[in-house]
Design a protein that fits this description.
The chain has 305 residues and is α+β, with helices and mostly antiparallel strands. 38% of the residues lie in helices and 10% in strands. The chain has a two-stranded antiparallel ribbon. A two-stranded antiparallel ribbon has the order 3-4. The protein has a two-stranded antiparallel ribbon with strand order 5-6.
Length: 305
């Protein structure tokens, strides 16, 4: 059963499904033991994975749509074009082991890669940004798809994804250090703009949409890209801000020192990437697991990565 996210968003969400299966495929690769429990887990994942009807979400066109609802059909009608957090969806859709449901490379090249904000190529704070919005947008763009998908050496005709993700992060960091709006707290040890709870609701923060709210997951999920800067932020968040933003589940979602506001909430979609990306920085474990999937290797090849 679905828990409606909004009135029309009460059915299938292909992007969230993709994040789920990015994780489940890693689990399938990790639990490779021969006992009944691990075999059953692998079998369940292997039973669900080929059943995702990726091509249904093209509506017969060369692009993937985000939502479909049994009650509202295609009412939301949101075609997903890059560059943003949804790259993993296109890679999984091309990698499906079920030929009946997989999508063609044209869906990637003519759908995902065709938008006015896909290619960039400009420099911000001295860092060249191959793809995406000016200044890179929220940091989750370089994190969610890359929890399993290893950006090291990953290239296609559009970008080198290590360069893309690292420079996206460095631009976000440099902006916070520059702090053109003079918000309280910003600096070399306090940075990171991404989507989070904030004092007046929820917002996707970035250098072009900044109201003084820092989100710990932004800097901490960037550990593989900027380990020194991320470690400085981690120590500041933990030792200096301490109880204001730390509780039994780790860091709370966000804080705004200008408004003297500290979130009480924890968001799983912000906590999860911290854990996965610290492990990728330490050992590369999640990256190794996901990239070891034979279907993913086939899908990446098909899209000319």
């Amino acid at each position: 059963k679905t828990i409606p996210f909004s009135r029309k968003d009460d059915g299938a969400d292909l992007v969230e499904t993709s994040y789920l299966f990015q994780g489940l495929l890693c689990a399938r690769q990790y639990f490779n033991g021969n006992d009944a429990v691990e075999r059953e887990l692998r079998n369940r994942i292997q039973w669900m994975w080929p059943d995702i009807e990726w091509n249904w979400f093209t509506q017969g066109q060369e692009v993937l749509y985000w939502h479909w609802s049994p009650n509202n059909g295609w009412a939301m009608n949101f075609p997903v074009r890059g560059f943003n957090e949804c790259l993993i969806m296109y890679i999984l859709a091309a990698s499906s082991p079920n030929e009946k449901y997989q999508v063609s490379s044209d869906v990637y090249h003519r759908g995902w890669a065709e938008s006015i904000f896909f290619k960039n190529g400009k420099e911000f704070y001295g860092f060249k940004l191959p793809l995406g919005f000016d200044y890179g947008g929220p940091l989750f763009f370089s994190q969610y798809s890359f929890l399993g998908l290893d950006p090291r050496g990953l290239k296609d005709r559009y970008a080198d994804y290590w360069e893309q993700n690292k420079n996206h992060t460095l631009i976000n960091y440099a902006y916070c250090v520059d702090n053109p709006k003079a918000f309280k707290g910003y600096g070399q040890n306090c940075w990171g703009l991404t989507a989070s709870d904030t004092y007046d609701g929820y917002n996707a923060f970035s250098p072009t949409n900044d109201f003084g709210t820092i989100t710990p997951t932004a800097a901490l999920s960037a550990f593989p890209y900027t380990p020194d800067y991320s470690m400085k932020a981690l120590k500041h968040f933990y030792f200096d801000l301490g109880d204001k933003i730390w509780s039994e589940y780790g860091f709370t979602d966000a804080f705004n020192e200008t408004k003297n506001w500290y979130a009480a909430s924890h968001l799983a979609i912000d906590q999860g990437p911290i854990v996965a990306m610290i492990e990728n920085y330490r050992t590369g474990l999640i990256w190794k697991l996901f990239m070891s999937c034979p279907e993913i290797k086939t899908g990446l090849k098909k899209l000319d990565f």
